[in-house]
Amino acid sequence: MRLSTFTLSKVGRSLPVLLVALIFAGCTSQTPETYQEQPPANGSASSVWYLQQMQQSSDDSKTQWQLLAIRALLQEGQTQQASELYSQLPGNIIDTQQQEQLLLLAQIKAAQQDYAAASAILKRIDFNRLDATQQQSYYSAVIAANQTQPSLTLLRAYIAQEPLLGNDARQKNIDDTWQALASMTPEQMNSLVINADENTLQGWLDLQQVWSSNRTDLDKLKAGIQDWKIRYPNNPGAKSLPTQLSDLRPASTDSASVSKIALLLPLNGQPGLFGRTIQQGFEAAKSQGTEPVTVPQRSAISSEQTTGEQTGDHNPVTQDITESSQVTGVASAPANPNAEVKIYDTSSQPIDQVIAQAQQDGATLIVGPLLKNDVDALAQINSGLNILALNQPETVQSRPNICYFALSPEDEARDAAHHIWQQEHRSPLLMVPSNALGERVAKAFAHEWQSLGGGTVLQQRLGSLSDLKRGVNGGSGLALTGTPVVTANNPPESVTIGGLTIPTVPVEPQVVTDGGNVDAVYIVATADEMALIKPMITMRTGSRGGAQLYASSRSSQGATGPDFRLEMEGLQYSDIPLLSGGNPQLMQQALSSVNNDYSLARLYAMGVDAWSLANHFTELRQTPGFAINGNTGQLTATPDCVVNRKLNWLQFNQGQVVPVS
Question: So what's the pLDDT on residue 100?
């Protein structure tokens, strides 16, 4: 008996008439029209209804309702409750229910981001025994378990799922299929081997090739897509193009969009210094133009120029790059001294009034605002202007006219998670400040780590500089131990659904965990703090400790002498390309403008990159995979147009600083 064809007749006969009457007696506040007496038993009702039926049933019928309730909870996003209810399933489940049980467990594991377990469970399912509804759930679980790593498995699941979906869900499937393709690197694409009869998959791969070959020329791209639709008329994408390819406009519209820019920045109060620094970088790029930033390779930095004493430069990284590589993408933005840039002070009036004034003044593009509360307010403002916001809200609402470009510690933490994962470490420990910054960084890293397929992330909160000095004097060192990072709000102890109280899965206990298995440590600290932290780790673990140490750009502030570089031996740290050898001439200009303040130099670089992004707003918003080699990182955008930054990673090696290979 399959779930999707399970009828209520058996259960209805087993329910005493008196019990049914009592149920209605307890719902006197509901009219007959609002009370759903007999919804279908195929997973389309709410979890509340199925839980009520489960309470009123026994034996096989109770288990059947329990399975349906678990399915409904998962569809409603209540993973914790679904997991707890799943754990209460009887051990002697009948054969016809076993496939559904496995399918639900795979979905739970995927929702909990335990992708390896989900994939293993899916392999145990007999697909031929699933009905259409279960097959759709099966493919959804396959997609969830593989979505962090684009692959043939993921593409085939999207293609197989598409015919099973209703019209409303098909467009999302098409968009997701395209996004998986667009996320693949050229190396991944070249390594794909498909079967001769996979015509739909071949069509998708050919569309990706059309896009890859023409993405820098939107006119050619549009013509290529039209030709592709003729060649593959039965492909789902030909019937309804991916959203990102359905409204392409010629690149020539970009020049008009930057003819009159409204630059929205705080110019007074404490944030005023930040706003004015970004303005400096933006106007410098407007006057001089920008070019792709080089990415130094491991052999690119000469030993003579890694010492600040010999070069006279405060940056320990050389200014002479002898070898370089560039990420594919249109990355330059021409100088345009004739473009009108008008500055609006967001510290003087509410952001909605500032935007209204900019629109009234004839602005064609808005760059800013910078402060987070102003960026959050954009969700409530209806403006037809394109907006390049210089921060990111907590919850991004996809808007066709807004992109988000942030320079934040959370952004660095997410990049660090990718870097550490690529270096094949799987048991990270975070050492972060005991404040709100540390909390934000820990959550950003852990969330990104788990999205990659990683498990629990440990954190250790660091004290003040004086606390660290006392630790050095005490000779105790720093142990590689921590407590689990909680990536979601602590759930309530229990939840009541349809009269049934279900205990939630308890949060992992906050106990110190043995750090013996820690293989990577990501440290967020200043240079002064790092000068104490690394020796204290060595003091505790020995000079040949197994964990690789990583640091954020917070510890990279220039003016570090040879003793510091020797003390940091083996440490890897991230920084923006501008300050790691990618653009020596602009680096000198930026540091000179901000009196060698590295923190402000990063904001200067942000202003420069904002000019590049503004000049390529259409491609950024519409062209999947569009990349810019910027001064703040290698820049790409998500489907919601959140700009991601891939940073440069450097390493201390025998008193020198070299790029990580």
Answer: 92
- The CATH number that domain 3-244 falls under is 1.25.40.650
> How far, in Å, CA of 60 to CA of 94, rounded?
8
Rounded distance between C-alpha atoms, residue 225 and residue 209, angstroms:
10
Low-confidence winner among 119-133, 177-191, 445-459, 620-634 (lowest mean pLDDT): 177-191
Arithmetic mean of pLDDT, 350-369: 94
Q: Within the chain, what is the greatest distance between any pair of CA atoms?
A: 93
Residue 174 has what pLDDT? 93
Q: Angle at which helices 115-122 and 132-146 pack, to 10 degrees?
A: 140
Per-residue CA distances from 358 to 277, 286, 340, 384, 422 (Å): 21, 19, 12, 12, 44
pLDDT range class, residue 624, cuts 50, 70, 90:
confident
Element (H, E) at 584: helix 584-593
241 and 222 Cβ atoms separated by less than 8 Å? no
The angle subtended at Cα 601 by Cα 626 and Cα 583, nearest 5°, is: 55
Residue 589 to residue 44: CA distance in whole angstroms: 63
H helix or E strand, kind and range, residue 342: strand 340-345
pLDDT the model gives residue 577: 95
In sequence order, the β-bridge partners of residue 482 are 513
Distance from chain centroid for Cα 592: 34
Amino acid letter at 45? A
Sign of CA dihedral 608, 609, 615, 617: negative
Residues of the chain with CATH 1.25.40.650: 3-244
Q: What is the mean pLDDT of the chain?
A: 81
Residue 552 in contact with residue 524, Cβ under 8 Å?
yes
DSSP at 548: E
**CA–CA separation, 369 and 373 (whole Å):** 9
> Domain spanning 409-582+635-659 has what CATH number?
3.40.50.2300
The Cα 405–Cα 387 span in angstroms is 10
Q: Name the residue type at position 437.
A: L
pLDDT digits (tens, 9 = 90+) for 50-98: 998 898 887 768 888 999 999 999 988 899 999 999 999 988 888 878 9
Write out pLDDT tens, residues 516-552. 589 999 999 999 999 999 999 988 887 666 799 999 9
Q: CATH 3.40.50.2300 region(s) of the chain? A: 409-582+635-659
Is the distance from CB of 630 to CB of 620 less than 8 angstroms?
Answer: no
As a whole number of angstroms, the distance between CA 237 and CA 203 comes to: 9
pLDDT at site 516? 58
Asked whether the predicted pLDDT for residue 249 surpasses 60, the reply is no
Q: Report residue 429 as tokens.
A: 């420990």
